[in-house]
Specification:
The protein has 13 helices and no strands. The protein has two domains: 148 residues, no CATH class; 78 residues, no CATH class. It is 72% helix and 0% strand.
Length: 277
Amino acid sequence: MKNKHNKKRNTAFIYESLVKEATVAMLRSETEKKRKVVSLIKRHFHSDSLLNRELECYKSLYEKQDLEEALCEKIIKEAKIARRLIDPDGLFKQQTELIKDINKDLGPSVYNNYVPNYRTLASISQLFSTKLSPKNAVILEKQLVTDMATASSQGEAATAVDGLVVQSFVQKFNSKYSETLLEEQKTLLGYYISSFSDNELELKMFLNEEIKRLKDKLIEAKRVDDIKSDPAMVAKTETIIEKLNSFSCSAVNDQVLILVMKTQKLVKEIYNDGNNG
């Protein structure tokens, strides 16, 4: 018989659900709520916490990898060993503190958030349980091996943001901006989400490259007939370029993110129109 799954004690589910809360708050410009969620993530999932150690065990199994089955089996084995080495009492205590803070700062609605890979996270939780029978353990491991080995070849994205953010939030994003997310916007949003629990290193590296690309495209766009023939359009384009230049000295915040995303769409529209023309 399968053990009843308690999603409040599923570290990966709670983490993914909190990331979802933060992203929705950001897209809705709910600054105070986003601050609370990010603060919770940083406080409870810092690099030395037991919650973060368990989260890494989960991630090694549910993030899409497209690996050979033999290697997947070894990863599952090592993840189970690493999970067993975590102090269960200490982990339970940290989970309890996290649940208490979520209830106090955000409310129980967080536990009802839709996480696309919920069933996989529940299966991993069962696999990490000491109460699972050998037969059920083998069945779950076989399913995880299949998922890990075939997910990418089926064309699914290799990053968590596609499953977590894009599929869950595209409707909410569309209701505000009346558009679909571009691939470059998905990538930027993914790095932004990851920056909640690291030092923004990867986000800053990506932004440096992306801002340079956008500036180059805008400089080139000034030679497009519809723009160069319109002084106002040229002036606006130069203003955007200057704003992008100023970001090299700015902290990465919601305003920077939104402007870069809007510029990504503008560049896409300019060159799509140019191609269509």
